Design the sequence.
């Protein structure tokens, strides 16, 4: 099979599975914003931001290291068992320390201690499945990967709907039944965490076979090599997570106390509309990451990498323009509570930032292939410094617009840095004239549609149609080769 055609096939499957948790966030958005006030949604957003940060710490780059060493190892079982033991040990250590200091963490973050316990459990369960999921991807078993991810999403979504919508109605209609007995008023935030916790526990149960069949042979020398490769990925992961979620934490901390939770909630809800770009970029990355490693030794892999980046920019430009053109329609569908709409002006900036991040992931192949992941850490830290600096400097004056501006500048800087540093280490023949053309035209049409023509969908649709016509004219022949060649 044409390797590019195989890439797109696997990207479709892995993408479906990997973006489903993010799709869940989008699907739950109308539920949460319909049931919760902006202040409550702001609190939930901050808690989940902390969970995301700790998830990166507990993964500490071992997933990427697993791919690298598993693909080149003669004794693959040793890589599996060493990775499993490493994650098991560090996660158990985390559980012990976190439970010992749960009250202190709750007090410092101004959370109810039961929320901290839920968070600890969710973080630990998610860490336990890092290597099993990586093993499925490394062995090109996308269907099993997808099925387990889908099960997680269905359970999480189903329990959220049950606890937040069905259970209150049942309790109100039948005050003497079993379900009414388990219903607790004003317990919505806890119900949301319980739904996540049950879904994560079932996911771990489905992934247990890899743990049960491992011989648990820990190779300290191999682990040192893997950790040496992984620690820059950890630094990069922390920086990435800061760029993605730390703005919600800073908004809550830096805005006046009487509006902090409400403003954070509005921003977090409208930020979710930027997930349409993130979903696409994540799906694409999940497909190309194994492809990058498996084709690194083939003849002229740089040409394939350049083509892949070109396709990403084409598709990403279409998504950027389409979401911005139909932003008002999407806000009614996904954020039915108009109390959140004041923050809609951040959506174009969040989408553009997500697009820059996706391009960065494509450009970052050079330091992963050449084992120079320290450069990835350096670039990501620069992005995190920009994020933190702009948020601290501008939030008091601009509020959540400062966070949106920081997102664009941070990811844009990382994209540019990766390209210029990579040129001297692993040159890839990108067609930047075409890439800049697509990027520039999509940004221009998006800005005209959203700001100049005030989100007029008729005018925006004309812009989108014109852009699609340009893409068809310029890419028709190449797309036929990818999708139709046997």
Sequence:
């Amino acid at each position: 099979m044409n390797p590019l055609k195989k890439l797109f096939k696997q990207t479709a499957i892995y993408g479906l599975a990997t973006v489903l948790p993010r799709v869940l966030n989008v699907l739950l958005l109308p539920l949460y914003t319909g049931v919760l006030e902006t202040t409550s949604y702001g609190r939930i957003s901050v808690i989940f931001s902390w969970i995301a940060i700790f998830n990166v710490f507990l993964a500490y780059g071992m997933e990427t290291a697993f791919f690298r060493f598993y693909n080149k190892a003669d004794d693959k079982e040793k890589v599996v068992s060493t990775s499993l033991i490493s994650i098991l040990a560090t996660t158990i250590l985390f559980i012990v320390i976190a439970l010992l200091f749960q009250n202190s963490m709750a007090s410092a973050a101004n959370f109810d201690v039961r929320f901290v316990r839920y968070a600890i459990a969710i973080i630990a369960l998610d860490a336990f499945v890092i290597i099993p999921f990586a093993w499925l991807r490394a062995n090109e078993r996308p269907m099993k990967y997808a099925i387990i991810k889908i099960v997680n999403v269905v359970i999480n979504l189903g329990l959220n709907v049950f606890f937040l919508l069905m259970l209150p109605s049942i309790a109100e209609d039948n005050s003497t039944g079993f379900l009414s007995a388990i219903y607790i008023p004003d317990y919505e935030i806890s119900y949301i965490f319980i739904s996540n916790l049950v879904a994560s526990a079932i996911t771990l149960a489905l992934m247990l076979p890899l743990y049960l069949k491992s011989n648990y042979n820990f190779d300290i020398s191999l682990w040192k090599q893997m950790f040496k490769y992984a620690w820059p990925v950890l630094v990069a992961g922390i920086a990435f997570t800061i760029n993605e979620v730390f703005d919600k934490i800073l908004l809550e901390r830096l805005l006046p106390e009487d509006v902090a939770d409400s403003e954070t909630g509005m921003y977090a809800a409208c930020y979710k509309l930027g997930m349409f770009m993130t979903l696409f970029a994540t799906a694409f990355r999940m497909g190309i990451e194994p492809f990058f490693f498996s084709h690194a030794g083939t003849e002229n892999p740089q040409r394939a990498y350049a083509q892949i980046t070109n396709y990403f920019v084409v598709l990403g430009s279409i998504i950027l323009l389409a979401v911005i053109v139909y932003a008002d329609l999407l806000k009614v569908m996904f954020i039915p509570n108009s109390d959140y709409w004041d923050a809609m002006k951040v959506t174009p900036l969040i989408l553009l930032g997500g697009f820059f991040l996706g391009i960065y992931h494509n450009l970052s192949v050079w330091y992963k292939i050449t084992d120079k992941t320290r450069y990835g850490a350096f670039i990501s830290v620069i992005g995190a410094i920009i994020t933190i600096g702009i948020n601290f400097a501008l939030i008091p004056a601009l509020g959540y617009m400062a966070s949106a501006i920081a997102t664009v500048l941070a990811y844009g800087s990382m994209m540019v840095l990766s390209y210029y540093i990579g040129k001297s280490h692993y040159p890839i023949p990108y067609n930047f004239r075409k890439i800049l053309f697509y990027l520039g035209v999509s940004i221009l049409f998006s800005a005209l549609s959203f700001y100049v023509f005030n989100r007029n969908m008729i005018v925006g649709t004309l812009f989108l149609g014109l852009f699609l016509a340009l893409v068809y004219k310029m890419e028709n022949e190449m797309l036929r080769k990818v999708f139709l060649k046997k």
The chain is about 85% helix and 0% strand.
